[in-house]
Amino acid sequence: MKIKDGFVVRDIMGQCVVVATGEASENFSGMIKLNDTGKDIWEGVAAGKTETEIISDIVSEYDVDREHAEVSVKKFITDMKDKGFIID
Length: 88
Prior knowledge:
Elements: E1 2-3, E2 7-12, E3 15-20, H1 24-27, E4 31-34, H2 36-46, H3 51-61, H4 66-82, E5 86-87
Antiparallel strand pairs: 1-5, 2-3, 3-4
Helix pairs in contact: 2-3, 3-4
């Protein structure tokens, strides 16, 4: 999986957001605000990490058990795929 071309993370006035650029902005004109965990997941996908590696990173970084991290990471990635930000 990877981030679809044209979607980037930006810091706008202290908020981490996903914005569309170039051709991607023709189909998506909004912004998606990311919390710290969402940003870590997004950056993991952008770095080419597997879902399992991202889950391990979240468990290591935050005070969360593996089961909760798996559910949250899988849901976030599924939502991003459904919105067209992430492709397999």
